[in-house]
Specification:
The structure is a single chain. With about 100 residues, the protein is mainly alpha-helical. It has one domain. It contains four helices and two strands. Strands 1-2 form a two-stranded antiparallel sheet. The longest helix has 24 residues.
Length: about 100
């Protein structure tokens, strides 16, 4: 019963965010913009419907980290993914490697 109430409240808050707050931000989810399947809020709504609140929070935290990493790589001025250390589009992986695995 507590899980159900928590789910209903969290889903309501996500819907409130999506309808009223997200349009005011002025930018979109970096994960979705860079080719992800879902925005963070749609993914959060989906997993809170499917999993318990504790599991959903862990999964949503991982999604936020993925989104944050893509936001660090996304240069909104040029609209291309860039490596934040050197600023060159697609020059190397986010860890500084050249993307070939060595």
């Amino acid at each position: 019963m507590v899980n159900y109430i928590a789910r209903v409240i969290i889903i309501y808050l996500i819907d409130f965010y999506r309808v009223y707050l997200s349009p005011l931000k002025g930018y979109k989810c970096a994960y979705a913009v860079s080719g992800g399947k879902y925005t963070c809020s749609s993914y959060g709504r989906k997993i809170f419907l499917r999993f318990s609140p504790i599991v959903a929070i862990k999964l949503l935290r991982r999604q936020f980290l993925r989104c944050h990493n893509r936001a660090l790589m996304f240069n909104s001025n040029r609209g291309v993914l860039v490596h934040t250390a050197c600023g060159v589009p697609f020059c190397c992986g986010p860890d500084g490697s050249d993307g070939r695995g060595y």
